Amino acid sequence: MSYNNIRLDITDGLARLTLARPAALNALSRPLLVEFIDALDRLREGGRARALLITADGRGFSSGADLSGGGSPAGSSGVDAGEVLEQFYNPLIERMFDLPLPIVSGVHGAVVGAGCMIALAADITIASRSAFFLQAFVNTGLVPDAGSMWMLPRLVGIARARAMMMLAERIPAETARDWGMIYDVVEDDMLAEKVTEVARKLAGGPTRSYGLIRRGVRRALELPLTEALAMERWAQREAGESSDFFEGIAAFREKRKPRFTGE
Questions:
Q1: Phi (first) and psi of residue 144, to 5 degrees
Q2: pLDDT at position 82, please?
Q3: In which residue ranges of the chain is pLDDT below 50?
Q4: What is the 3-state secondary structure (H, E, C) of the chain?
Q5: Domain 207-253: which topology?
Q6: 6-203: what fold?
Q7: Contacts of 116 (CB under 8 A, 6+ apart)
Q8: What per-residue confidence (pLDDT) applies to 71?
Q9: Pairing between strand 103-107 and 124-128?
């Protein structure tokens, strides 16, 4: 598939996925979502990438779902508002969580609605100081989606999550960091450098270990303690069979930097 709404580049193990509808503030149109899902499938099956960095062109990360004209059925009589979730948003979020690669997102400007959840579905989210996060669904009489009701209470607590969803107030980047919603905030002119640095570090790390961490954290959020401990035992056994584990031990004993291959 050729891409018109995103860009995907893979260099030295680092995949860069860029939302590329700047004139529409990277509104999430159906064509963009189709391309995003295809890109995630390509990364999962291709074997070349060891980390994923998600950023966006223009003056903001994303204004959320594309509710404008131009073919959008939103607000039309008889349209099932949940159908777009079933076909596009839910598969996209599931694919992001299931990807066996670490994900970094670098966000700036508006980070709104489903675009907010794409940003927060990354393992490490770094925002520029100009960024703000907004759950704007109630402004059009809808409810938060794209994983909002699952992710936000886990990130910021029930009280803050409900207030975000019901009041539809902008959450500045610094507040999002203080709440534990994101990892860090940097100056606008440092965002690209910072997220690239972090993503490259992950691309050179123990990819199999990262994948097990991603899977384990998601499962542990839903398990009782005893089952979570058993899951950790299973994951540790898997990690202990990797080539990177043996390389890491050898590097530790030889007092040198490990040369991980992702295997």
A1: -60, 140
A2: 87
A3: 70-73, 75
A4: CCCCCEEEEEECCEEEEEECCHHHCCCECHHHHHHHHHHHHHHHHHCCCCEEEEEECCCCCECCECCCCCCCCCCCCCCCCCHHHHHHHHHHHHHHHHCCCCEEEEECCEEEHHHHHHHHCCCEEEEECCCEEECCHHHHCCCCCCCHHHHHHHHHCHHHHHHHHHHCCCEEHHHHHHHCCCCEEECHHHHHHHHHHHHHHHHCCCHHHHHHHHHHHHHHCCCCHHHHHHHHHHHHHHHHCCHHHHHHHHHHHCCCCCCCCCC
A5: Lyase 2-enoyl-coa Hydratase; Chain  A, domain 2 (1.10.12)
A6: 2-enoyl-CoA Hydratase; Chain A, domain 1 (3.90.226)
A7: 62, 64, 133, 134, 135, 148
A8: 45
A9: parallel
Q: Is the pTM of this model over 0.85?
A: yes
- 4-50 confidence digits (pLDDT tens): 999 999 999 999 999 999 999 999 999 999 999 999 999 999 889 99
Any idea where the domains of the chain sit in the sequence? Answer: 6-203, 207-253
Question: How many residues does the structure list for the chain?
Answer: 263
CB-based contact 181:120 (threshold 8 Å) = yes
